[in-house]
Design a protein that fits this description.
alpha/beta; Rossmann fold; 2 domains; five-stranded parallel sheet
Length: about 270
């Protein structure tokens, strides 16, 4: 391991969608890692032709709080406004909140001011922040553009407090048809990264399919056993919980639940500090 390159000689598998992989792969490579891309899901936006989408966008001035839970949601939802010829100023009367700095940055890069960012980079952290700032009192109309199968922590908690919440699925996470790497190549990796529960779920399914009938030495063995030589790395507690529910141990969890935080956690683990 050379100075400043703690991941020299390490192989790291990145399972996030290919179009999002660079934010994780590039800093890992900068630290010396060989990065293997094995996307397990892809992002498919919901079209503006959908009647539900049009109704919500037309009612935009009625919402007092709009919560974005991912950069994908930002890109798709603001794309709707552009497609309809609506100015970003359509959001000016609402408080705009984001789960985490990457989502906030996606808003700012597109010219939308983010009023509230979670103190912690998860839904629970945003709930705490909203409560401290008292920006979602009972009766507040709230819009949450999200993935179709997103966690329901935010919407359920806000409804319980009396807010009127509409969740608008703006994109689907669709399983990849197959792994783009041989399963044995993944099993030999030093680290395997997961940045969402959906990526973890699909990874297990794809590895099981790839291992069925395969001639490689690990075929037929439980996945946890096949991956025993790799450290499974999670971006945060929700993803870690999913991995454990799937019977897979989590060796590294980012304390800051971002791509940057995950890179730092992996580097620390490789250097023997975690």
């Amino acid at each position: 391991m050379t100075h400043g390159r703690p991941l020299e000689g390490r192989t790291i598998v990145v399972t996030r969608p290919r179009e999002q992989a660079a934010s994780l792969a590039q800093p890992l490579e900068h630290l010396g890692a060989e990065v293997l891309l094995a996307p397990t899901i892809r992002i498919v936006p919901r079209t503006l032709d959908d009647e539900v989408v049009r109704v919500v966008v037309n009612d935009l001035p009625e919402y007092r709080l709009i919560i974005f839970t991912s950069a994908n949601g930002v890109a798709v939802f603001l794309g709707y406004l552009t497609e309809l010829g609506l100015p970003l100023a359509s959001l000016d009367d609402a408080i705009v909140a984001a789960v985490g700095p990457r989502t906030a940055s996606a808003l700012e890069e597109r010219g939308v001011t983010c009023d509230v960012v979670a103190d912690d980079f998860v839904a629970e952290g945003l709930l705490d922040t909203l409560e401290k700032r008292a920006v979602a009192p009972a009766g507040t109309r709230v819009l949450i553009p999200s993935a179709r199968l997103a966690r329901t922590v935010l919407s359920e908690a806000l409804r319980a407090s009396g807010a009127r919440v509409d969740v608008l699925p703006v994109y689907d996470t669709v399983p990849a048809k197959r792994l783009q790497l041989p399963p044995e190549r993944i099993e030999r990796a030093d680290f395997i990264t997961f940045t969402s529960s959906s990526a973890a779920l699909q990874f297990v399914g794809l590895m099981d399919i790839a291992g069925t009938g395969s001639a490689h030495a690990g075929a037929g063995r439980p996945l946890a056993e096949r991956l025993s030589g790799a450290a499974l790395c999670s971006i945060g507690p929700a993803t870690s919980d999913t991995l454990r529910e799937l019977g897979l141990p989590v060796a590294v969890e980012a304390s800051e639940h971002t791509a940057e935080g995950l890179v730092a956690a992996i580097a620390a683990s490789a250097a023997g500090f975690a």
